[in-house]
Design a protein that fits this description.
heterodimer; A: alpha+beta; Rossmann fold; OB fold (Dihydrolipoamide Acetyltransferase, E2P); 9 helices; 20 strands; 24% helix; B: alpha+beta; 2 domains; six-stranded mixed sheet
Chain lengths: 369, 369
């Protein structure tokens, strides 16, 4: 039953600080994802936990024991990375039973766990095939099976689906989560695919520049991100800078380039009259309509419209010249708009995220580095 | 002005048919996206059009002329490979100027062209850098710029945005289309990302195992998928096995397993025929209590809940054991629905498609390669 702790992990590569004092606890049975822009240190962090990378400072603890000096092969972790290395001369069955073989488990005792794993991963039909005969998805499932048959209860996934096509990736991510939960494993999953992280995780860690920005359950991070960078990095968001013109019991009136918005500050931010603020809204919460819609309704012009199947994506220019992205889901009989249409746009107050204007400036606060 | 026709083109690699009797036409200045998974024949298609590969059967007609035996250099088409083959000893600017200089003796004009396309891919400030000093994503943008500057009017782009980070990919895809349209290019753009294909393409060609599955506008391919594979590969779709019970001018009544009934708009199948009915996941609504007024009301247990950001996806196991997935836009989620909840789902017969029961079974049709 692994409980993982990373305490004050630092790692430098020459002048580059890959990890700058990272503290993180992963609960037993938790499915945790780590996301962040390239170079944020997410891969270095998972490699430190795996024992592939030795931190310059700090410790990794598994179930309360310091494992920092212990190499990967003695840590009892299953490690799966993007460029999978299956043994090309072994078929699926032998690849999967490899872990048990090297641990000296006699052949007769190997078949039980191996067959169970192959069954769980829907690989039974492939047992006698060799890696080169498998699709990318089946290869990666074999690699995951091999990592798990060794009996490890901690699964470290470093972009495990990264080399696969989108469609296959979407199917496999759900299978992966189901497997982790069915087997009661603890999983740490590094990914650059935000939808993947949102859909499979119990908790997501957002990293930037070697540090953890924010951690929390997917819905909380997506709908109520505390940090402005989380709003930017996880999903899409529109950002608007404005000035607070009035405050009342946690409600603020904001002037955004001449247009007004009412928003709620919540518990994390307190703003005074005259202060600058940044308001953010996810594009799918903005409503477009041919009729005006009460508070926070602006007029706007559709600049471009594109159909992406389940959603229309619009670039719009608001009355105050702000450019916004709007996503309108298509579930049945919604009307759609065309470039040049002049319509009303409502930014529902309950969906507006309120931030203090960052000291370093908005652009810097949102930058990926 | 480039126009392109492929007539019954087949290309074999040993026993494998990488392209299998492919016939289609691309209009002058059209932006065509070829969508398919790894191994579907996308790259072979581009390389055959470029003249790098020679088809075993069929004709390739460029600008009204059969070009099967015309070399790649002499075709009015440029292939931009997925793996950027840049000249390592040349600067970025020289790499991009290579094409223009071959046709244009005035260095200043060639340089202007090169700088213009470099600005477009946001690398105008890195003109003096050498390829090895750039990230993979940047190198791919240089390769793209070189293709754009080559002077050929038919651009063959192989996953041009594949190596880029999500954010840059989203930004560049609209710019890529804009550029092609403004400069009068005809483009064939290969991708496995359906959203990319839908956003950029005038039309989409879906390819599977070397065979053309469907060619049409994004709207058409999404809303009128002609094959089960297209319905499953483009978008997220639920499929149910059924038997036709009765039919009339208004549609048909189908019988699912265990006698559950659904109505569909299609009336092309005879009673007692076995069929597959498909519904887009976003066209399925889900409520804790039946509302009573819906069509095709079924009920079952929620077995999985996936948070996707702008949508929440619910997997429901119906009373007959069939599985249905519903994707609900986040802003339409009013009451919380959890795993284990008993729910009512429904969908409009207008949003269904019916297909002949495939000889290989449903699963055989869904496999991507």
């Amino acid at each position: 039953m692994p409980l993982i702790r990373a305490e004050g992990i630092r790692k430098e590569y020459g002048k580059v600080t890959a990890l700058n004092g990272v503290n993180l606890t992963i609960k037993d049975g938790e499915y945790l994802s780590i996301v962040g822009p390239s170079g944020c240190g997410k891969t270095t962090l998972i490699k430190s936990i795996a024992g592939v990378v030795k931190p310059d400072a700090g410790d990794i603890l598994i179930d309360g024991n310091i494992v920092t000096p212990i190499p990967i092969e003695d840590r009892g972790v299953g490690y799966v990375f993007q460029e999978i290395a299956l043994f090309p001369h072994m078929n699926v069955y032998d690849n999967v039973s490899y872990g048990l073989m090297v641990r000296g488990v006699p052949p007769l005792d190997r078949s039980g766990p191996v067959e169970e794993m192959l069954h769980m991963m829907n690989l039974e039909a492939y047992v006698s095939l060799y890696p080169k005969e498998l699709s990318g998805g089946a290869r990666q499932k074999t690699a995951i099976s091999r990592a798990l048959t060794s009996g490890s209860t901690l699964l470290l996934l470093d972009e495990p689906l990264g080399a696969l096509d989108l469609k296959v990736r979407t199917i496999l991510r759900y299978e992966l989560r189901r497997l982790v939960k069915d087997l009661g494993l603890t999983a740490i999953h590094v990914t650059h695919d935000q939808e993947e992280a949102l859909s499979v995780s119990d908790r997501i860690v957002v990293m930037r520049a070697g540090q953890i920005v924010e951690a929390g359950p997917p819905m909380q991070l997506y709908l109520r991100p505390e940090k402005i960078f989380t709003a930017k990095f996880l999903g899409e968001a529109n950002f608007m800078t404005g000035e607070v013109t009035e405050t009342r019991n946690g409600d603020i009136m904001v002037n955004v380039d001449g247009s007004r918005l009412i928003a709620h500050t919540g518990i994390n931010v307190s703003l005074e009259e005259g202060e600058k603020t940044v308001l953010a809204i996810r594009p799918e919460f903005v409503d477009l309509s041919t009729k005006p819609g009460g508070v926070n309704t602006w007029t706007c012009e559709i600049i471009s419209a594109s159909f992406v199947g389940d959603t229309m994506r619009y670039d719009v220019r608001a009355e105050n010249s702000a450019n916004l992205l709007v996503k309108a889901p298509i579930t049945g009989h919604e009307s759609s708009f065309m470039a040049g249409d002049k319509v009303f746009m409502t930014l529902p107050d309950e969906n507006l995220l309120v931030y203090r204007l960052p000291e370093e400036g908005l652009e810097k606060a949102l930058s990926l580095e | 002005m480039p126009s392109l026709r492929l007539l019954n083109v087949t290309k074999r690699f040993g026993a494998l048919k990488a392209l299998d009797d492919v016939t289609f036409e691309v209009k002058d200045r059209e932006y065509l996206c070829v969508l398919g998974s790894t191994g579907s024949g996308k790259t072979t298609l581009l390389r055959s059009i470029a003249g790098i590969l020679r088809p075993d059967e069929g004709d390739i007609v460029l600008d009204g002329e059969r070009v099967n035996s015309v070399s790649a250099e002499e075709r009015n088409a440029v292939y931009v490979p997925q793996t950027y083959a840049l000249f390592p000893h040349m600067t970025v600017l020289d790499n991009v100027m290579f094409g223009p200089l071959a046709k244009e003796t005035d260095r200043r004009i060639a340089e202007e062209v090169a700088i213009r396309v470099l600005r477009l891919v946001r690398l105008d400030k890195r003109g003096d850098a050498y390829p090895h000093e750039l990230s993979g994503g940047m190198q791919q943008r240089v390769a793209l710029a070189r293709g754009l500057a080559s002077g050929a009017k038919l651009l063959l782009l192989d996953e041009p945005l594949g190596a880029l980070d999500v954010r840059l990919r989203l930004e560049l895809r609209t710019e890529l289309r804009k550029l092609a349209k403004e400069s009068g290019f005809t483009v064939i753009h290969v991708t496995h990302d359906q959203e990319e294909a839908m956003t950029i393409g005038d039309r989409i060609l879906v390819l599977r195992k070397g065979k053309l599955q469907q060619l049409g506008t994004p709207y058409h391919v999404y809303n009128r998928p002609e094959k089960i594979f297209v319905a499953s590969f483009v978008g997220s779709t639920t499929f149910l096995e059924a038997i036709v019970e009765s039919r009339s001018k208004e549609g048909s009544k189908l019988r699912l397993r265990e006698g559950l009934k659904v109505r569909v708009i299609d009336s092309s199948f005879e009673p007692e025929e076995a069929v597959i009915v498909s519904v887009r996941e976003e066209n399925i609504s889900i409520t804790p209590e039946p509302r009573g007024d819906e069509h095709n009301r079924l009920s079952g247990d929620v077995t999985e809940v996936h948070f996707l950001g702008s949508f929440i996806r619910y997997v429901v196991k119906l009373t007959n054991g069939d599985e249905i997935a519903a994707r609900v836009p986040i802003k339409m989620v009013k009451t919380e629905i959890n795993q284990g909840d008993w729910v009512s789902i429904s969908f409009d017969p207008m949003n269904t498609h019916v297909y002949e029961y495939p000889t290989l079974g449903l699963q055989g049709e869904l496999e991507v390669s």
